[in-house]
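User: Quick sanity check before I run a bigger batch. Here is a single chain. Can you write out its predicted 3D structure?
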Amino acid sequence: ICRRSRLLRSQSGKGAMALVELSHEDAQRAVSRYSRDLSVAVNNGPRSVVISGDSTALNELLAELSARDVFCKPVKVDVASHSPQMEVLREALLQELEPISPQRASVQFLSTVLDRTISGTECSADYWFRNLREPVLFWSAIQRASESGQQAFIEISPHPIVVPSIRDGLSALGRDAVVV
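Assistant: Done. Predicted structure follows.
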């Protein structure tokens, strides 16, 4: 995390992210004409995504969505994680993380990168680059956890935004859970 954060500083001020109340499919359509500059970075729930990328393009899209009465809220960051802007960090991050030696996890590990349960041994330098660059499949992981019997979800984040998505999503699935 420290090495990645240090590299991310080089991208400070070059991007932005925003929470948007759209389904994943609707968000994909919304960013399609901005495909070089924006991407759906996170799928938080049935109607909650984060869009990430170039600040100017994102502001333009948010203005369009707001005009259609779609809820949009900027995330307080100045980098565009999970977007094409992260490609410039690939080689440096792979080099920084090359010495890591992934180990088997002692608890169940639902990967929001690979969209499945993993052993932990998959968490190579390339995995952690993909974790920074590719979309976060958070909602899929929440569904899998719920299906396996998990009934408590705790968000620990510098920018807490997923609690409402988890509650709404699980409610739509007819599942009870403690979400804080």
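The helical segments are 2-8, 24-31, 55-67, 90-97, 125-133, 138-147, 163-172.

User: Great, the batch can go ahead then.
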